[in-house]
Every structure is written in C-alpha cells, then in structure tokens.
## 1
Amino acid sequence: MFNPIASYRIQFNKEFTFKQLDDQLEFFFLLGPGAIYASPVFEAVPGSMHGYNVTNANALNPEIGKYTEFTALSDKLKEKGMGWIQDIVPNHMAFDSKNNWLFDVLEKGVYSKYAGYFDIDYEHPGLQKKLMAPFLGKTVTEAVNEGEIKLQTFKGSFVFRYFDNLFPVNFTTFQIICQKYLQNTPFFFYQILE
C-alpha cells in the first residue's frame, strides 16, 4: 500500500494547469513530499477555480490540460518515486446545463439511464415524481409574467431559460407545449427561435 509521509496539495484551475505544474516539478522534488495531492481534475463548469462543480467525471477538464500532459506528469513523478493522490469528488456535481447526466435526468426523470446515479426521492408524496430545485427568486407565475422564464431550444431539446440557468422540458410538458403552440404556429416558431 502506498503510504507517503507527506504530500503537497495542488489546486488546479485555468490559472494553474498541468503544464505549469510540470514546469515546477524540480522545485517539488527538492521539497521532498512523497506525493502530489491533486484537486479535482475532471471536467467542471467553465472558469471553475476549484473543480468541485464537476460536469463530466469521465473527462479531464480541458482548462487545466490534456491527457498527454497528465500522463507525462505521471511518468515524471514515477521516475522520482513520487505518487499522485487524486481528489475524485464523487459527491460533487454541478447543477448546470453542461452536466449531461443531470440534464438527462431532468428531462426523462425515472426513465433516464442516469437516474440511479442521483439520490432523488421519486416517491415523495407531495412532488408526484417531480424534482424540486430552489432557483426561482419569486413564484413561477410572477417569473413567467415578468418574462424571466423563456421557452427556447438547446441541443435539440426544449428548455426553459431562467436568466443563465437552463432546465430541460420533460416529455409530458413537451406534449403540452406542442398541443398549445402548434395551434398558433407563427407564435410557436417565434418562441423557439427567440
């Protein structure tokens, strides 16, 4: 079992990348830690300074580097007998439209292939298989009447936009939208294209 005496914490973000760590490795070798303890390196919300708002746990964050840079770092550490401890944050995912798993769950609910990865109580008696998320600064009626919630398309799906937040329209709501707005085709297309 790998058991380093000391480690050095590295905070990766767009301002400190794999390349920048590579440029400073000799300094870390002189310090003598047994391992680099790396902040999350997975794809996160663009501009994330900490990496705890993961959007894709199956890909490296392109803002901090490429896979080839990551493996080159790993090889250099191995040559010097240093390890790499990775903070994987499996319990941190961003509630963001760039999180494809969450977006799929919001759109398809229990029928999403990712539904089992999220701790959602679909049997809650007051929510009727719906997920409640606290994003509105007022009631739904007020937000709609004031034009803060808009119907748009995103990645081939209907979404509701609330300022910078996008929420996919589920299948039931999609049918309601089509039935209502197809009766007034020009208005329907205007809403989609806006």
## 2
Amino acid sequence: MGWTFKIYPTIGIARLGNCPNDGVSDFYVGPEVPGSVIVPQNGYKDSQGRVRRQAARFHIYCWEDGVFMGEIDSSAATITWTVELANTKAAFNQFHGVGHTNGPLRNAAVSDRTSLMIKPGPRTIGLGGQALFNTGQFLGTAVPLGEIQTDANGRLLVLGGFGASNSPTNAAITTFANNDGWHDDVSDGPVNATVRIGGQTYQAEGAWVICPPTRFAPPIPHPISLYDTLLQAMVDRYGYQVPATPSFTNDIYPLLRSQLANQWVSSKLSASYYAALSAVIPPPATAAQRQAIFQQFRPPSTPPTQTTSKEMPAIWTDYFADLKNNGWVNHPLTVTQYNSLAAWAAGNFVNDWVGYPSPGTAYTPDGLTRAALENCSGGPFFPGIETSFLTRDQYPFIEPFRLDGTALQAGDLTKQNAVPWQTDFYDCDFQSPLSWWPAARPEDVFPSGSSKYAGWERGVKSPAAMIQLWSGLGFLVQSGNAVVEIDRTI
C-alpha cells in the first residue's frame, strides 16, 4: 500500500473581514479543536474598527500501509499547495426554497454567463509563498477573493474576501436572496497538495475551503451545526455508523448547551425553559425532568410543512417557502441528534460526566474537521450562511466529510446562497413566531455593562444599510457566566 497523505480539515472555514492585508496581525486562525472558541489576541477588530479575517489552516497527515503516522510538515517533506476560489452566485439559479432547484436564472438577461462568475483561477505556493486571488471580475469589475500563504511549518493558510458587495450597474436591492447586478466576495473551492518525500512525489487527498460571512457570536453553539447535518448525511447516504448509546458529555450536553446559550442571542424563549434545561445538568436528573425536555423537540419524521406543538428547536423550517401560513413550523434536529435525546430521556445513555468539559489542545485529523464545521449553521438552509442544502442533499463525498472534488467546481458550495450575503443577513432577524439563525446572526443581545436586551442590528435600517454598515456590528464574547456584546461601532 505504501504512503497515503490526506488534507485536514476536510472542509475548512475562512471568514470574511474588512481589515486590510498588511500584516499577519490582521487575521487569526479559526477553531482547530472541537469545543474551542477563538478570541484573537488583538481582538476581533483592529484599532479602526475593521473586522479581522478568520483564516482556515490546512494540515497534512500521513498513513503508512494503513497505519497512522501523524502530521507531516515542511521539516520532513516538500509540500506544494494548490487552491482555487470562485464566486458563481450571480450565474446560478435564483433561490426559491429547498428542493426548488430548477428555478429561473439570476441575471437571466446577461448572455455572457462567464462575466457573472468571479473566477481568478488556481494558485500554487510552497513554503513561505503567498498568492492573491485578485484577477477575478464581475461584469468587468475586479473583485478580490482573498489569498493563500503558509505558516512557518508549511501548513496552508487560506484567507477569504473583505465583505465587499457592490453593483457595477447600480442595480436596486429588491430581494433577500436574488439581487441581479450585484456581487459579493464570498467564495469556495478545492484545496490540493503534493508531498515530496524520499525522492517520490505523492498527491494528497484533497479538501475544500468555504469563505463565508463573519461569525459575530463565536461563544454560541448552533442547535444544529453543519457537523451535525453532514454527519447525518454520512449516516443516510453512506451507512456511516454512530455509537448505539449516546454519551452525556459528547452527545447530550452539547445539545442542551446550545439551547441554554440561546438566551444570549434571543429574548423570545421563556425563562422557565432555560430553568428546565439547567435542572438536568449535571446528570442523571430524574426521568420526569429528562422527558419534559425531550417532549418539547419536534420529531424529524414530522412532515416538514406541518405545524406542531413540539416547539424546539425554535428555528424556522427549511421549507419556509412552501408554508401556507405562519404557524409553528420549526426545523427538527437531525435523526441522530433526536435519537440520542430520546435514548437519554429513557435513561439509556453513558453517564460519563466529570464536570463541564474543556477543549483539548492536541490537533487530530477528525478534530480539525469537527472544529471547523461545528461553528457553522447546519440549518435551516433558507438559503444558508456558510453553504446551502445542495451540500447536504446532493453533493457526493468520497469518505466521511470529504467531498468528491472530481464532481464539483470552485464556487459550488456557495452558489445557491444569497447575493449579496448582507441582504439575507438583514432579513433573517426574528420572524414571528420563530427565529432563523440566532447563533450565527444574533437577534437580541446584552451590550457590555447592560442588564437589558438590545436589538443586535439596531441602527441598521435596511438591507442596503447592512451592506454598508455590517462591520460596525458587535461581537459576542464570554464575560464570566454571561455573554455580552462588545466592539460595536455603529
């Protein structure tokens, strides 16, 4: 069998920021250990209030005859990285809801479809190299998408765009998702590498990078993360096996914690719900207490447009476009999450609780992937923040969480998302009676020093204003037992 090399994380996340590219202090590396929250040493913003970009860092691990040998870096091999980024939103179909994949084109009147695709092409670097994705254009206007470089060990660093959204034709903003004549600088694409060692050159198994909008609430876990959603896709589509008996620490507590943390980004749920959640930590709690929590969650088997008394999670369904009314039609947990919660409620779980878990410090291949994906929204995809329902429902994988790069093109993971992203970001505030993505796009927050909720987007009065003012919005940080808003400059 010989040597095998693989790139991790399998899907990396490099977030936008408008801090200029004039030094390494102007970005930070995103989470690389599950459960970790990155607070940059110099803050999320620079002295002028500009948002620092979050870099995605890629590592290479090796196996010899199927035996794991660990990470390999530039001290032992010559590593050459090739990355391609693209933004093809404006050339793809309009978004009109999950499953509506054959709708009209965005910018249908533009016959030269390539003029709508920001495709600077691939870039290749080695140790100490740097390359810019600065040659792509939208309707003849240059749109930089970011850059790549390496760290001192030869690992790859990908930095995305600057949050710049514009219309070269001065087109009006008319919808939350499909604004003709507009572009943003979100992107995605394949990450590949060759490894030269012992006089031979090997092709590493490739990865993918997504360069999505800023995450303004890093301490707040998603009720359904992209890791949860893709894990379920691996189970459903490829027979991936999950443990039969859930661990309280690894499976149940993260679910409960995500629900508890909602109080820091939304004022809409009752104090009694949070009290009931707190009462079951630490385990085992009583059977009645566990059942009281479990009975509030919508079964995944419920038809997606059906109203229900099962109120949690309190986020809208994927199928919002198909609803006939604004009843309580919420998005369910994944089947794996729900089954874990059901087993816990029945007392069938591993009580491995030894206290509130702290993130580890060691990098592992699977840990790098989980750390990246658990900080992304796994639904609802209307159309989504980091990626869309196409990744969950259609795109092929060659192994758990590793996309089949031969079946995809740069730009595919973000092409169904809103253009520009800020219009969707503005509209996805609380929409009675449910929320959209409060863990990614807060609704209500506690400004530092205040004990009262304030609207997170206060002062931003329109989608057009969000395009101009997004970087002035506040970040959420842990402050003792609370989560507060800081760095607001609007």
## 3
Amino acid sequence: MQEWLFPCNPNYYDVKGAFGSLNKINWKQNRDVLVGDTVYIYIGKPDQEIKYETKVIDVDLPRTSIDDSKFVKDGTTYVNHGRYMTLEFVKEFRDRELTYQDMVQNGLRTVQSQIKISDQLKFFINSRKNIGKHSQKKQYFFVFQNESYKDEKAGQYLWAPKSNQKKHSISHWKRMTEIKKDDIIFHSVNRKIKAISIAQTNCLSEDRPPELKETWTTAGWKVSSQYYELEEEFNISDHIEVLMKLQPDNNGPFNVNGNRKQGYLFSANKAMFDYIMEEVIKVQKNSSNRSILQELLEQQVDIEERLDQELVDGIDGLIEAYVNQPVDYKPQPEPKPQLDFLGKKSSYKRNKEVAIKALKRANYECEIDKSHPSFKRRTTKVNYTEPHHLIPMAKQGNFSYSLDVEANIVSLCSNCHNQIHYGADYKEMISKLHIKREKELTQAGIQIDLDTLIEYY
C-alpha cells in the first residue's frame, strides 16, 4: 500500500470542521490512489502542518455521496470535479507535531499537489507517530537478507516460508509470528546493517510475493515494515565483540565464533538497539539523518509508563480528603487535557482528583473481581487499589474528547494492574472491563471497539 500527502487550503475547505463532525469525507482524486492506501492531510497557511491521517476506502467515484457542503468555503475547484474518493478518519495529529519546516528537513519537496511520500519522509512521519506509545512490550529483531534485501526493501516487507521441503517448521522462520506492530528490526546484508525498520503490522499469513526467488512452498509469513536505509552502513565486524556480549542468551543472531547464525530472523534486545543506534548516529554525515535516528532512540524512553506510575504513587496522600465525599459522577464529553512537551516528547496530563474519585466510585475494590485480596492504605484506612486508564492516555490523540475521565479509569488491585500490562490473560481482562464500561465511555463521547482496545495493549 502507498502513502500520500494531500494539501488542503483552509480558505476553500474547513477540513477541521469536517472531521470534527464526520468520520468519512469525499475528496477530489487527481492520482491513481488505491483502496487501503494511507492519505495524510496537510493544511496550508497559517497552520502549515499535517493534521490528519486517513485511509482510502473507495476510489474513482463519479460524484460525491457525503454531504459536507457546510464545510466548503469555496467550491469552484471542488464541485463537479468528476472523480472523487472516500477518506476515513484514522488519527488527528497534535498541533505542531508534523510541521512544514520539519518535513522539509526530512525529504519533503513540495505540497502544491497530491504527492506520493518518499521513504525518508515516511520514516520521519512514522517516528513521530510512535511518540507516546508504550515501549515496555516493544521487541527487537535482527534479519539476515543477503539474497532478499533488494526485493523486500522495495516492497517494504519481510517474508519467510512456513515450512521446509519436508514440511517441517523452522524456528528462524516461525519467529516471524512474534513480530508485532511497532517492533524494531535491524536489516543485515553481508555483515553490514543497511537499514532499520518499524513494523507496520503484526505478522500475517500470506503467500510468497512473486518478486522473491521461488522456493519449495508458497505458504509463508509476512510483515509489512517501514524501512529507513542508512546513509552510512553499520559494519558488524567492527563491533562484533560488543554485540556478542549484548545479544540475548536465546535466539540471538551470532554464534560463539562471532559469525552469523544460519537462518533468517533472530531476536535482538534493547541493549543491542541502544548500542547500534548510538554508533550508527555517530557516523551519519547528514544532519537530518542523524536527527531522525536520534529521535527514534529517544522514543524508547517511555514517558507514558513513567507518568502512569507517578499517578499511582502521587494519589496516596490525597485520598483522605475525598473519602467522605458523595459519588455524583455523570459521564459526559470533556475537553482534552493539556498536552505537555518535554524536549521532543509529549504527553497528556493526568488529573489526580479524577483518579481518586474513580477509585471511590469502585468502593476501593478491584473491578476485575471484588473478592480479590487487598490491604489497607497507611494514610487512609481504605483498600489499596490502583487507577488504570482502560484506553491508554498515550492514545488521546486518536479521540476528540478527554480519556482522563472517570468513565475510562478503572480500579484494580496491584496484581491485576500488573497482569493487564504484562500477563498472558490480559485480553480476557480487557474484554471484561470493556463490557462494564462501554456504555459510560459512549456517554463520555468515547467510542472504541474491543479489537481496537486490545491492539492498544
């Protein structure tokens, strides 16, 4: 699938108003865009920034089918255009997150017409989209592509067979199934790391792409991944002693002699990522390349996880003031909380008072199971439970109204709180909480299906 950048003149069309009221809009079509492509909407002066990510769900329409006439300010270039497509809202970017100046420094040449996005600009946009995502579950992989790199890089994917000639599953191919969206992958060709990529999908079952060398089977595993090709490659031989010490004890890419293991995909880890990225950044000659890689490195420090823990720790001394207050919460849409910036990182504020009231609403009991054992707080003789945002605050940019509301904050015992983040049964827990809170979330202007909610974890 392709990624596109479409300009919007705010003097002609109020796209902010349109997406504030509609989930889908028609757009005039000048290029051969396909269903499933991604379209980023760039708003011209005075904004001069990408504001929306959309998905193409219909093309080559002879006329418009969605009434957005109240948002058309000057229809002379739009009405009776003769060829339209339908765009579905995916994400709203924060103000100043993807500015014209930033994009010019990262491969943008023009925004005068509908354009296909370059690889460099794709990588920059995706790196910005990853800001604020939880990195606790992020995984790292090392792929050897001596023969397949050219074709797989051109197609922006990884592919491996499901079995060998004897129909046996091979571990380094099956490891493809471990890759999740947003995982980091190092691409090695002839003892050099040529590219770094970010997985755009979970692993899918898909037949061998026709451009790849024919194998004994067509059945395979595929992951779409956004490649960023390094200007200056990383020579593995120069760093092999360090990499051997840092690699995982199990399924790492190198054997005891420092040679690559025979196979396709192997496990890496955060320590390898940090070391390789720091060394790669040092040798990049182009300042924009260095800044993109530096931003990717900095994103692995998870500000969202730290803020969630600060909320849990920070409410203890404040709970007593609310113990005897009545519970009178009625769900309704609330404005988004303030966005704070720390360098290139950003996050949405958590309101301690709201979290405390959410615990009181639940009578300081675990909402997975009220019978779960707890203990009394030292400061106030109520059960110890912890506030948890069912829809993570890191996803606030995807929603029009605040996620920091009591409808979205559940009370969990400390065991369940850890389990929902790191345990094997997290899907069942999320499903149970989603059923309990779906009505209140809707009343608060927050709509989310179970599959999407589970993906957020």
